[in-house]
Amino acid sequence: MTFKAFIFGLLATFGLPWLVAVVIPFSTMRSLDPVRFEDGSKFEGVFMPKRDGRINEGSKIYGQQGCATCHTQLIRPTYAGNDVHRDEWAGLRKSAGNPDTRRETLAMDYDDEDVAHIGMSRVGPDLSNLGRRLDQHLAGTGLSPEDWLLRHLYNPREIKNYRKGSTFIPSRSSCPSKMGLFKETTAANAKGVALPVEIEDGKAIVPGDKARILASYLASLKKDTLGQPLPEALNYNPQAPTEEN
Amino acid sequence: MAETTSTADSNGAALRASIDRSLRHPVMFFFTSGAAWLAVAIVLGLVASAKKHAPEFMTCCSWLDAGIVDAAHMSALIYGWGVQAAFGIIIWLMARLSRKECTNVGTILVAGHFWNATVAIGVICIMTGNGSGIPWMEFPSFVWPVLIFCFVLITIWSLIQFQVRDSGHVYVSQWYLLAGLLWFPWIAVTAYLFVFVFDGNPVMATGIAAWYKGTLFLLFFVPMALASAYYLAPKVTGRPVFSYDLALFGFWALAFLGPWAGMQKLVGAPIPQFLPYAGAAAMVLILIPAMSVGVNILKTVAGYGDVVAESPSLRFTASGVVLFVVYGFLSAALHLVPSMKMTQFSYSGYGLDILGLYGVFSLCAFGAVYFIVPRITRREWLSRRFIKWHFYLSLYGVVSIVICAIIGGVSQGQGIEDLSQPFGTMAERASQYGWGVTLAWGFLLIANLFFCLHLLLMWARLGRRSSHPTLLKAHHGESPHGPEGEIDNYGSASA
User: Fold this and answer.
1) Whole-complex ipTM
2) Which CATH number is B143's domain given?
3) Which of B59, B126, B182, B204 should we substitute to test contact with A (largest number of A Cβ atoms within 10 Å)?
């Protein structure tokens, strides 16, 4: 093996996968074709999932705090796993008040984020639809998803208002606390944003900026079809035809 | 005739001694600072693992928060210990095999200090909540160009040494060293540009980061470990490599498969569908290079069991090679399509990473350290007991981590897929195995306290002045190294 042959071999064995697995898919994925709703559908124009919240900043903090070590944000198609059927990870199940809103994750679900936090492992549940689940669980309690999330981030195990049916159950979460994102201040300065935690008189715990941004991001995680049906081209679980049509 | 041979021998010995002397400071710098980082990484790993099953553990310090401490642990392990140990191996081995003294010690040392400072800054950034949150690329984006630049400054002299060597045989170790030196910058620059600089789709950025993780291990850490193994196995036993053709085959199999690995983390993610499966296929087929290297090295030392048992370098190296074969089998089993469902997001991936980084790379690197350090300090290791403890605790610790993480991970993943069980049960199931992993990191911590202390004593030039290497079995009667206490004359210790 001459030196030239050696270098040529390295260039060939590395260069080809580098082009095929990195460079070309990167440029393809960079400009994905927009998907339009089909003619005759109730919706018009291009499908673009909408999320409200501080997505870009929140996604950065989600990464910095290492949330992706234990939480995923990926609903795999059924050929790759049972995620669609697990709890309410993929959206809401069909119930009296709700249509079935479950769906798989799409490329545009991560728009406005720098990197997609696919996640390392599932020590905790998938968060693709955390905002959606909280909306449902907190309906009628007067507690906003952001407030619930702030309490959960401060102390994941003391929260008593995780509701199931009409009974409140204490959280069995094994999530570690993110107390570092909160600060202690005087009760006078807290101005109504203090967390309802027991602490010495005259003091209060208030969320820092990062905690608020992170809560806003987490509450924005609604990657299902509620109010945002898929165009046929993206719908991998089409409705079975009924007898009427 | 006999006289000529003896002159050639003594010239060779003089050349080797002068190469060792020229590299004394940089190699010791990389090994000792690497060992210190390894201790840091293990302490962080212990905390990170404890938090998996005891979430209230050390909640006082936000810089040790779960997630943050995991990132700091892996970064310290990879860039603090792993790459620095590789630096020591690269510059020493390439100089010895090319028969060239190192003439750029100053540059290497300055770049080495910059590397350490940059890794320290990166780890501090992670712990203050300013990391990137991308697996194995957790340092903030400004750190990467500095690291890549330092890497080039440290290793480019080894490429030059290879180029200007007196023509002759190119050793198997040199293929791996050369290839690793060319692959690393290519991989790192690609990952830096495509993840942090170019504006693309966020899912693809994650995919390329996963590719970086896969290729960094297979195309940098594995080649460095194998370069050391292909040097030490023939050197210590005094036999040629078992089969040159098999070595050639193993090398090209790795070169052919390695660049595809990594994206298996994204099965089911919205990226082109062939990418994750190409990654999974590469991880299955990695068994082929693992087997060919394993057979080749073990056949080289076969029949020399007593040498393997009594030489610290060979004992570590042989264990590392055996664990590489184990890595090949486990990787193949965990990345088959039916098991991917269970292993993709479970604890087992961490087990495989630690098997690779600690079981394969670090054990081979320890073997190299035990061989190289006495030569450059001209002192022998002080305590055979320290080496034995380091060996047994390391092996026991890494095997426990891998068994706990992989069995725990597979049962966790299998449970998450099983819809008849609630999710919470699975999380608890996995956390039981977390106890085992935490305990095993404790063993590794003790092992590396022995290693670190021993290395620092050698660094302080407190090693034994003897021409007898420290072997793991006491020798009686006549020794091939002459009577105890005699020191050869090449390169005086005071130089």
Assistant:
1) 0.92
2) 1.20.210.10
3) B204
